[in-house]
TrEMBL record:
PANTHER family: AMINOGLYCOSIDE PHOSPHOTRANSFERASE-RELATED-RELATED (PTHR21310), BIFUNCTIONAL AAC_APH (PTHR21310:SF42). The keyword Transferase applies. Residues 44-270 form the Aminoglycoside phosphotransferase domain. It comes from the Bacteria. This is Putative phosphotransferase. Coiled coil: none annotated. Keywords: Transferase.
C-alpha cells in the first residue's frame, strides 16, 4: 500500500502516513481495537504524526526515517520514560500501551499511548493566566522531586553546557539574516553562553513548549511527550516561562519556584537556543512553530 497523507513536509526526508494506513496497521496488529475509529489529529508537532484511536488511545508514528531496530529501542525508552513521568506528576500525562510493527507501506515501529483530553496551549493560549503559571510551577516542582537514581545528563541536546551549542547557534544566526535582528541576537548569546553551570542535575520534562502542554479553562490540564524526560540542568524546564507566559504570570512562576538569578538566566539561555532554531527552520514548513520562536525571542528581549 502506497497511500500517503497530505501532511506538510517539515523535514527533507520526512515520512508520511495516512489515516488509511494507520487504520490498517491498528486493525491488523491490534484486533481488539479494530472496531474503533482511527482519525488524524491536527497539530503543529514536528516529530510524530498522531492518530486518535477511539476515545482513549492515540497512535504516534515517527516522521523521520531511521533504522527500525534503533527506532524500536527509542520507542521502548520513551515508553519507559512516559510511564515514570505519568507516575510521578499530579497532572495527567499519556501512559504507554503498546508498540506496533512496520507495515502497510510504513517502514518503522510506532507506539500507542493513552489519550489525555485538553487543548494544546498553542491553540488555547494560557499566557496571561497567573493560575496557569502556578500550575506550571507545581509541574516543575513535581519533576524536580523525581529521584534521578544516579542519572546525569546524557550529553545530547539541551540540558548540559550552554557553550556546546555555539555551532548550532552560528548556523541559526547565518540562516536568520533576512528574518531577525541577528547582530542584537549575537550580542545576547555572547552573554548567555558565559553563564556558569552550578546546580546538580534533576529530572526535567525537557520540552515544555505550547504543543506539549494541555489547557482547560485557563489551567494546566496535562503534559505531553516524554521524549525529553531525563536528568539535566534544572533551568531547562524554565524555557516554559518564555514559551508559554506573559510577564506577569512569568513573575509568578519564578516566585513559586524560588529561582535565583543564575537559574533564571540559564532558563532564558535555553529558551533562546530553542527559539532561534524554530524561526528559520520552520519558516515555510510549519509557520506556527516559526511564530512561536519569534514570540519567545521577543519576550526574551524584554526579560
Amino acid at each position: 500500500m502506497t497511500d500517503i497523507s497530505p501532511q506538510q513536509k517539515m523535514h527533507a526526508d520526512q515520512l508520511t502516513v495516512s489515516a488509511a494506513q494507520a487504520r490498517l496497521l491498528v486493525g491488523r496488529q491490534f484486533p481488539q481495537w479494530r472496531a474503533l475509529p482511527v482519525e488524524a489529529v491536527a497539530g503543529d508537532g514536528t516529530v510524530n504524526a498522531i492518530f486518535r484511536i477511539g476515545d482513549r488511545l492515540a497512535a504516534r508514528f515517527p516522521l523521520q526515517p531511521g533504522d527500525p531496530e534503533q527506532v524500536r529501542r527509542l520507542l521502548e525508552s520513551e515508553a519507559e520514560a512516559a510511564g515514570e513521568l505519568a507516575a510521578h506528576i499530579r497532572f495527567p500525562a499519556p501512559e504507554p500501551v503498546a508498540i506496533g510493527e512496520p507495515g502497510a507501506g510504513y517502514p518503522l515501529p510506532w507506539s500507542v499511548q493513552t489519550w489525555v483530553p485538553g487543548t494544546v496551549a498553542a491553540e488555547e493560549d494560557p499566557g496571561g493566566s497567573e493560575a496557569f503559571a502556578g500550575d506550571l510551577a507545581e509541574l516543575i516542582h513535581d519533576l524536580r522531586a523525581i529521584d534521578t537514581r544516579g542519572r546525569t545528563f546524557a550529553g545530547q541536546g539541551r540540558g548540559g553546557e550552554l557553550r556546546t551549542h555555539d555551532g548550532w547557534l552560528e548556523t541559526c544566526f547565518e540562516r536568520s539574516e533576512e528574518l531577525l535582528d541577528v547582530p542584537a541576537l549575537r550580542r545576547l548569546w555572547a552573554r548567555l553562553r558565559e553563564l556558569p553551570r552550578q546546580a546538580p542535575d534533576v529530572m526535567v520534562h525537557g520540552d515544555l513548549i505550547p504543543g506539549n502542554v494541555l489547557v482547560r479553562d485557563g489551567r494546566l490540564a496535562g503534559v505531553l511527550d516524554a521524549g525529553g524526560f531525563q536528568a539535566a540542568d534544572p533551568a531547562l524546564d524554565l524555557v516554559s516561562a518564555w514559551h508559554l507566559l506573559e510577564s506577569g504570570p512569568r513573575a509568578v512562576l519564578r516566585r513559586e519556584l524560588g529561582s535565583d538569578d543564575l537559574e533564571w538566566e540559564r532558563g532564558r539561555a535555553w529558551a533562546f537556543q530553542q527559539a532561534m532554531g524554530l524561526v528559520w527552520y520552520y519558516a515555510e514548513s510549519n509557520p506556527p512553530m516559526s511564530r512561536l520562536g519569534r514570540r519567545t525571542l521577543a519576550r526574551l528581549a524584554h526579560r
